[in-house]
Amino acid sequence: MEILVCVKRVPDTAENEFQLNSAGNDLDRDDLVYSVNEWDNYAVEEAIQIVDRVGGNVTVVTVGDSESEEVLRREMAMGANNGVLMSDDAFEGSDGKGIATILAGEIKKGKYDLVLTGAQADAAAGQVGGMLAAMLDLPYASLVNKIEIEGSKLKIGREIEGGNQEMNEIELPCVLSIQTGINEPRYVGIRGIRKVAQVEIPVKDAAALGVDPASVGDAGAKVKRVDYFVPVLGDGAEMLEGSTDEIIAQLIERIKSKGGLA
Amino acid sequence: MSPLIGPANFMFFDFFPAAILSVLIPVVGVALFTYIMARRIAPLVRAAPDNRFNNIPERIKNLLIIWLAQWRQPRYMVAGVLHIVIFAGFLILSIRSTSLVIIGISDGFVLPGFGGVIGDIYNVLKDYAATAVLVACIIAAVRRGVVRPARYDVPAKYGKDHTAEAVFVLGVISTLMISESLFEATELAAEMQHTGHAEFLAPLSLVWIFRGMVSGFAQSTLQGLHLVMYYIHDLTFFFFLCFLPMGKHFHVITSIFNVFFMRVKKGNIKPVKYGVNAEELDNLESLGVKKLEDFTWKHILDFYSCADCGRCSDQCPANAVGRPLSPRFITIKARDLIFKNYPIKSGEIYKSKLLVEDIYTEDEIWSCTTCGACEQECPLGIEYIDKIVDLRRGMVDEGMVPQSLQKPLKALEKRGNPYGIMEKKRSDWCTEKEFAAECSVKILDGGETADTLFFVDSITSFDDNIKTIAKNTAKILTRAGVDFGILGKAEKDSGNEVIRFGEEMLFQNLKSHNTEAILESGVKQIVTADPHAFNALKNDYTGLPPVKHVSQVITEKIKAGALTLKEAQEPESVYVYHDPCYLGRHNGIYEDPREALDAIKNLNRVELAKSRDRSFCCGGGGLMLFYEPEEETRMGVLRVKMAAEAGATVIITACPFCLVNIQDAIKVAGKEGEMRAMDFTELIAQHLA
Amino acid sequence: MTQIYVYVTHKGGVADDIASEFIAAAKKIDTGATVTAVVTGSGADLDKIAQSLTSKYAEVIKISDPALAYPNAEVIRKALCNVLDKSAILLAPHDTLGMDLCPGLSIKMDSAFAADVVDFEGIDGGKLKLVRQELGGAVSTHVTCDISNGAVITIRPGAFAAADASASGKVTDKPAGDLAVKRRFLEVVQAEVGDVDITKSDVLVSVGRGIQEQENIAIAEELAEAMGAVVSCSRPIVDAKWLEKGRQVGTSGKTVKPKVYMAMGISGSFQHMGGVKGNPYIVAVNKNPKAPIFQVADVGIVADILEFMPALTEAIKDLK
Questions:
Q1: Chains that touch A (3 or more CB pairs under 8 A)
Q2: Most buried of B233, B583, B633, C232, CB within 10 angstroms?
């Protein structure tokens, strides 16, 4: 099975404390550390496991600048066979649709039986997989936490509310977005990455992908981030005082505003 | 002269010389033994290299103390004394056994030098030795077969019970003792009948008793018995020789080598591969132990040498709390695999599979806290930590790392600490307003210099609760007049657990980063309050200024009069000192912290039953705090209960991880209010005069 | 005038709470918008739901087809494409169905897409201004969305106050059209009881040593039930075997990223808080006013959880 996995280099949520820059309109990126998007890592592991079972190849692709190459190498150290970096100044400022358009350019050039993405990434939109599928006219399922191969079809589980699992049958080729917990991704150490340090990773620009520069990047983006902001936090907790009834009334109001009362 | 005909001259059925048998049995026995040994040596030859021909004086010392003097045996008194008796008996009787073989060919043979008085003395000695060995065997058999101490049990998951083999071998040894003694007794009885004169025999020895028993037998009976006993002894002897390499009694042969080659340096971890330096690691095809032959030859020898005594597992904290690890079976399972893959019968060599899928489980290998209790205990010098680390290296190389450990490892790679906190916050503990007003700490990041570096390490820098250790250490050092500073954001995790969890390359990165930062700071010595950092810097790093644990500095300063302590602030509290593994067992620092505590007048201090080199691990530090082991209880809880038994109300630790684990354990054990845990530095800081 | 469709999800014959939240969200987009509810499904249940929505919406589009009996996003997407005006704004919940349905729908409708919106700030020059969160909720962002060619937008359930609206609308039946897809729903496998994934819950009622006894875990469970939350805990609770290992939050347990974290009788050790990520709203209740949890919590209450939790549970129940 030929599997393509779309990955992204993102600021690591576990290893960063996000602060705004002095201008207050972007993250202070000086001290940020980046890694492969957690969901994508599960997707790559799943692809490798499928190929281990039925044979084939895993290709990892990403859209980004030259620094994004490191996440491709990390996934190749895990066991992905090929990597492709899609990089072009024209790609900068792409919205989800722009990214999906660029990825679709690469996918159309190959013959892939299965395209995987992470269920979501740093922007927490969870959009690229579904868009890709629609652009390529392929069936799609999101939040996939189980894949079984049954001939030209897959039996897949989707994680739905309440931790329940929605089982579906989906025809190949298809696009799936992978939820965390579908497997246990293997560890990639520094040695593993060094082993693939010399592997050639092709870089493709808009022309090579057959993508119209006007349809992607800032030019093609309908959805644009204006700025970042962080809700103001005080020192320590706001201590609620008064009678139990008063405290509870105040507390309920606060929890409600934070989406804590379903 | 004895009227009996010895085996050298006897004719069976008047025509068949018994001497032929006397030659045949040793020849066949030795040939068989040689073949078996050749098979046993095959995996040693195919194994990875090991550097064990250094430190010869130290090795000879080990041989004399641990092997010959059986120094570690009495740590388990009954079994130890029994073993010493059997071991000493074997040494003495080996001479007799050798000469007996030759007596079968040459009547009345005496080894050179064993004629005359020496021979007489030796005879008394060996008669008593045989007697003592027989008695020891009987007691041992009763212990194994009837009393059955729990540490010999074989849990179902590890296979069948080993009692039968143990008792069988005790039977074989007893047979040797009895046949040898009867062989001699029949001859002496016949002689006595003949001459009417009883030769002197060690009173109450086996021979003495047997001679009494058979003295009334007819001469023909004695003649028959004499020969039968000779050949029973001869056959048993060579059977035993060939049987030894088949199981746990291989140690009779290998122990002398195993002890000679045992580890002489403590606290460090073996290189990935001897002869391959850190820069060349990238070129290795594979890293760590994945298959049987990836172990070093010494580690294979370890597997051969295990006597199945169960002391390692009896001391193992992981085993005590029901984690899926028993060091004894790390060895036994490997030995069984060697025997299976290198069968005696067919002479084939089967290919070894990935060990962690074949005989070990991943959880088993991750369960070890590297506390070193097993190695400390083993009377044969078998090592475990290096094997566990080598297996982990193999698992890391294969990507087999539990998710719970991947998180902190990634954070260590990205941020230099397992929590993923930004580097610049590493020195926040000393810039907190309240503390900074009281004590100023230099940060050696270019501008300032100091004599001494206080290496804080990750948990002490970042954990809000443990930062107090950093603060108290700084206060004490300041009071003692030590000119010190910290590296601040230039410091990364010491990596003590990184290397021990098998992430060699990450450790090498941390090590070279820290080494460079430390050397650049220009300090002349290093102090740390974290035994794990202490151990790594002292034993795993090279080329650094001398490293001390803060307890050593404190004791030094007290002795020099630079630090004085008040009288005990809580004379009603009962303090007990818990030896951290990486301070005690791995680095031999037992007395410094105790001396410092005893410098506090009227401090009521008791000792734990398990202390010093038998200290019981609190649950492990560093990455072990992130690992989710399967276990029935926590090591810390057992430790807290031990402290309660000792009557303590305050457990003093000298390690940040011990403090975390024991504080938690006090809560879990429901002893909050009755008992508390405190770091050594806090107690000293409280008592600064 | 802006045309806004709201896609109302439903379960067991009842519309989800999102139906009321859409009204507030639509108002924040454009107070003068025409808001039309859209429901898909089949049978009498759907008729009932559509009818119930007429009390809130002037128009309810009902797309009924046996193929829509189970909400298979692939089928719904086709139906919506067949029926709806592509230049309009469509709102849907950002839940597991919305996530499955909407990104692809925006492509098929050739309109803009914005996900998991928590607030709208009106339309300015053909661009809708909205607020989202990124990086696991650590930061918020202002985003503009070009709605000149319509938009598909998912909104975070609970982010918009449920608004009361009274209407006496009508139900319009629309034929679903061609619904052939390459994905077939098979069944829903229910999560095993006691096998709760605390990492997936938006609200956690997390208990620590303050719970004191195993019997008291039930008190926390009642509160969690009232809040639609899941019970998690700190390590001592697992060690005491009062809850299973899978419930433990911390560096040696699970890493959770809820929206609201109710730390009940948890002192807030470094090891525990190491497992709480994504900047949730932390409510701390602890007897000890000096408990470190109050340093990291957003709101703190000094109280005995064994008294406080039942009172809170009652208050929440009364609310409903």
A1: B, C
A2: C232
